[in-house]
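Changelog-adjacent note: as of this version, every example in the card shows the full chain rather than a window. The one below runs 120 residues end to end.
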Amino acid sequence: MLEEIITLARAMSGSAEDALLETFCQVAQEELERRLRQGVTPEACGSAFACAGACLACAALYETDTAGSGGVSFRAGDVSVTASAGGESTASTKALRELAERMMAPYLDDGGFCFRGVRA
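Full-length structure tokens:
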């Protein structure tokens, strides 16, 4: 699964920083695996797992790239994120993370929150 995440992240980022990107991919995979609902495997998530992992890795790479450069752009299928350094970088990174969350929503543990109702 890690190789699939790396392949997608390379395609999305166009990054030449392979070692850093691969590290972010591994961390993204581990993060998603920890958050999976009990009994759900990465393979059961289909392509959503690898794509979400790549989005998280690119978001992390994007944060490090825009800290000292002029900006970065990413593309995942029909979704394209382009921004320059500064205020736009935070919004673009947030968009990638939210995209990963939406893709994985059916497979992730909800964190234990339960809303039971309101008493009058």
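Structural remarks: The longest strand covers residues 71-76.
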